[in-house]
Amino acid sequence: MITPNIELDNNFSLSFSAIDGTFHEIFTEEGVRSFVVVGIVKGKVTSSSLDIQEIEIVKGIYEGSGENAMRVAEYEEARKAKSDIVLMDRKISFDTSLGIIPPKDI
Q1: pLDDT tens digit sequence for 8-39
Q2: End-to-end Cα distance, the chain
Q3: I need a labelling partner for 60 at 20 to 30 A (CA). Which of 6, 11, 35, 43 fits?
Q4: Nearest CA among 101, 90, 102, 67 for reference residue 19
Q5: Cα–Cα nearest to 81, from 38, 37, 40, 22
Q6: Where are the alpha helices (DSSP H) in the chain?
Q7: How far apart (Å, rounded) are the C-alpha atoms in residues 28 and 23?
Q8: Which segments of 13-78 are extended strands (E)?
């Protein structure tokens, strides 16, 4: 865990990836299909600025529950992140109880 003291460190820099997803379920005669979108905002926080460096959108269509597909897609993106910190709005204890293993550095 990084705990900077900004008053003492004028060269403070921390990269981040903020990940969030949404889904929409489509009910058809063949069953449920889910449209899942995951957004990733990448940037850097320094002692004097907050810079957004990249915004990425990942989308897909899945069979079955959109909630579960979104959850898995968010964690897949977290595993790929090359940031000092990954920000997510997941309840990790709940996801773990469902058998999803979050990345170790989240």
Answers
A1: 556 788 999 999 999 999 999 999 999 999 99
A2: 10
A3: 43
A4: 90
A5: 40
A6: 66-80, 92-97
A7: 16
A8: 13-28, 31-46, 50-63
